Structures are given as C-alpha cells and as structure tokens.
Amino acid sequence: MFQDSLIFQRKILSNAYAFKFDERFEEYFIKTEDGESLNALLFQTKSHSKGLILYFHGNADNLQRWGNYAVDFTSLGYDILMFDYRGYGKSTGIPDEVSLYKDAETVLKWAKQHSTFNRLIIYGRSLGSAIASHLAKTDEPDLLILETPFGELKGAVSFPLKPMLQLFPLHYQFSNKAFLPNITCPKVIIHGTNDWVVPLSSALELKPLLKEGDKFVIIEGGGHRNLRDFEEFHRVLRESLNN
Fold first, then answer.
1. How much is the pTM?
2. 137 vs 114: CA distance, rounded Å
C-alpha cells in the first residue's frame, strides 16, 4: 500500500467536475473489459490535422493539470488524446502496472474506432513513458516520444529511499529497458540535466537501446516538470512532429 501511494499520486475528481482549458476539447468515458470507466479528453487542432497523439501522463494529479499541455501539440497541427489512469480524476478502479498496460490498449482501440487519423504518435511522460513504450511494442506507431523517462521504475526512486529497496523490493517494474529493444518505429527521448525526480543517469540507460536515426536530446538545466519552459524542447517537438 505504501508503494502504491508513492507511485500513483492520484487526485480524484467528481463526475460533475467541469474541466477548464483554453483549448477546445471533447470529454469521453471509455469502458474497459473489466467494467471500469476511463475519463478521456480529446483536444483538436484548429488547423488541418496531421495525425493523433496518444498522450500518457505522469504519476501525479489528473487531467485538469495535464490538459494544459495540449497546446504544445495542437499548435503543431495534431489532435491529442489524453486519459486519466484508472483511479485518477474521474476514472474508476485502482491502478496497477498490468491494468495500466491493458487500459492503454483499450484507449488506442477506442481511438481507432472513433476517430480518423493517418499518423499515430505515442507520447509518454515520466511514469507514462513505460506505458507508452509497452504499447508501442505491440501496436506500432509512426513515432514514439518519451519525456523524462527512466530505465526502469527503481531508477526513479529518490536516494534517501533507495536503501529501503533492499528490504522492500518494488513489485512494479515499468521497464523501458525491457520494451525499447522490441520497438522498431523512430524514437525520440527528451531529458534534462537537473531532473531531481528521474535522474538523467537513469534515462541514459536507454541510449544504447536506440537505433540509427533515433534521438536522445539532453536539455541543459532542464528539470522534471519544466522542460516546456525551454525553447530547445519546443524545437525538438517541431522537428520531430513535422518530419
């Protein structure tokens, strides 16, 4: 229970909660095979859509926070679909590693049935990077982008807590290292030098797994929550999404 509360720092919302964003969006509830309901938001670009970005957010908060980042993608001509993991926001259920992987497949299947797009980008941030990588392993996208990823979850455990792993090993893996070798699409990894949540050293474990043409971008001075404050971050997005 302690590990779950540490990893899944979710904030629950009532179903009556009304999201507020500057970008236009539509709200959906997607049913899972085991009877849970996943709350999703679809943000649509104001221009002709170049494709769909399926976005997997970090381990904290809910869509009211993460939806504010949609503009980074809609401004580049992409629609973006975000959803709250089970137990987050308005989504029902209790999160765990296996369920989150299955829910990712459910949401992608729903997207294919309810929208038309000729290019699919899978985007994962922090904890969401492993969910994105797992999905890209089985459902090949046109591009995989990972923001502030870790090699595996234990690489994101802060230094003071690391000795506890000897007594209480993590029962979740969330291993990008295990998934990346089986992904053949182009990959882009973005990380900062001042990330105190997921150290750059953990992300660098993924660099040897990249193939020719993949990118590993290090943003000098970038932290875990502020990469979008750097022009380098937006340059990488523009170059990657406009290719």
1. 0.94
2. 22
